[in-house]
Amino acid sequence: MSKIPYRKNRKGPKVRSLVSYIAFGLITIWLLTSIYLGVSPIEIIKKGFVSIGSVGGGDTIESLKAEIATRDSIITDLNRQLSNQATSGLRRAIVKVSTNTLNMRSKASLSSEILLQIPTESEVGILFYDTETYFLQGKAGKWCKIKYAGIEGWVWGNFLLEIE
Predict the structure, then answer these.
(1) 66, 76, 80, 101 - which has most CB atoms within 10 Å?
(2) Taking the CA of residue 125 as centre, how many other CA atoms within 13 Å lie in the half-sphere pointing to its CB?
(3) How would you label 64-80 residue by residue, b for 16+ Cβ within 10 Å and e otherwise?
């Protein structure tokens, strides 16, 4: 019987397979993710399989377009309600001028920047009137800070007819 020599000193470190390194890395990531998210590792696996199963989950382009149209109509309704609420809680007034538009200005002054032109007969929200009385074309009046189309600015108060 021949004896097989025992090698006591092997050259180099013990070699591990690449698969074991990958498995160790994946398990580490899995456990750290569960700790970070505050859920059990099993829940992460369940959610992973559910999300994999839902990829391309049979949604057709038509159903997605219908969903988008539904959401767009909801957004449109909310925008309409928001614009209606823009002047709620404020005193309201109607613009009354002999021309087609009334200039809304950045400050209570004829020399200040024109922010926009408000069409006559438009409804505006009154924020407040200036405390000082001024004279414009021989008539006494006050500047009024208003809100129209979501923009705040100043108009000559004599051109507003308060309602309600």
Answers:
(1) 101
(2) 15
(3) eeeeeeeeeeeeeeeee
Instruction: Quickly tell me which residue has 């009154």 as its tokens.
Output: 126
CA 58 to chain CA mean position, Å:
30
Rg over CA atoms, the chain: 37
Do 126 and 91 contact (CB within 8 A), yes or no? yes
Q: What is the pLDDT of residues 82-96, one digit of tens each?
A: 666 655 567 888 899
Instruction: Tell me the two tokens of residue 164.
Output: 């309600």
- Are the CB atoms for 134 and 140 separated by under 8 Å? yes
Token duo for residue 106? 């950045």
CB atoms near residue 163 (< 10 Å): 9
Under a CB-based contact definition with an 8 Å cutoff, are residues 146 and 152 in contact?
A: yes
Residues of the chain with pLDDT under 50: 12, 55
H or E stretch covering 73: helix 61-85
Beta pairing partners, 155: 144
What does the DSSP 8-state code read for residue 14?
P
Q: How far apart are CA 50 and CA 80, in angstroms?
A: 38
| pTM more than 0.70 | no
